[in-house]
Amino acid sequence: MIHLSFRKSKTKPNGKKPPAEEKKQYLEPEFTKIRVVDFDLKELVVLPREIDLNEWLASNTTTFFNLINLQYSTISEFCTGDTCQAMTACNTIYYWYDERGKKTKCTAPQYVDFVMSLCQKLVTDEEIFPTKYGKEFPNSFESLVKKICRYLFHVLAHLYWAHFKETVAMDLQGHLNTLYAHFIVFVREFNLVDPKETCIMDDLSEVLCTPAPPPAPTPAPSAPASAPSPSSQNHVTER
Ligand SMILES: [Zn+2]
Fold this sequence. Notes:
The protein is mostly helical. Helix content is 44%, strand content 5%. It has a three-stranded mixed β-sheet with strand order 1-2-5.
């Protein structure tokens, strides 16, 4: 198994303001229709016959870690202590909890750095993600996979919330959408992230994770506006 590590480049703060006023550009049909693949992603995530569940989780989790790290690296020069003073996504601020469980407020680039360093440490630990034949997965394996997936979701959510414009400027929104949809379908299949975590992005998940309809001349009937969940409305949630 190849473990790649993409470290973000250290760049000077450019004093750019977060695009907070431009709400959810990522939901505009112009962008959600752009995907790299148009088949049902579920086919990609179901456990293949003859494959051990833990092997499958380990391989996919490692791949998602590398891809999300790479996707973040494309905009990392725009994610600075100035532009992103906190790790935000929708109305949520994520706080980092250190190894002793102490809550710390940190900037988004610091948070992402903590996430990527932790993930790198875990997926390359032979005791946790064994790659040698016959080596057993530890009892804590599933909970560690859940932890990694939860943190990777935070990074994806931040990419959409704070850096979608820059992603579009580099014409990488199709890659981001495909990566996001694949990730969400995967974590749903194996219940790896609490829906209470992912609900802040449910509107996007609904659009991206349903197979793209065949092109039809008749417009789809307008879906009833889904009521925003109380936790995502009008106040900042702390996690
Ligand atoms: Zn940022």
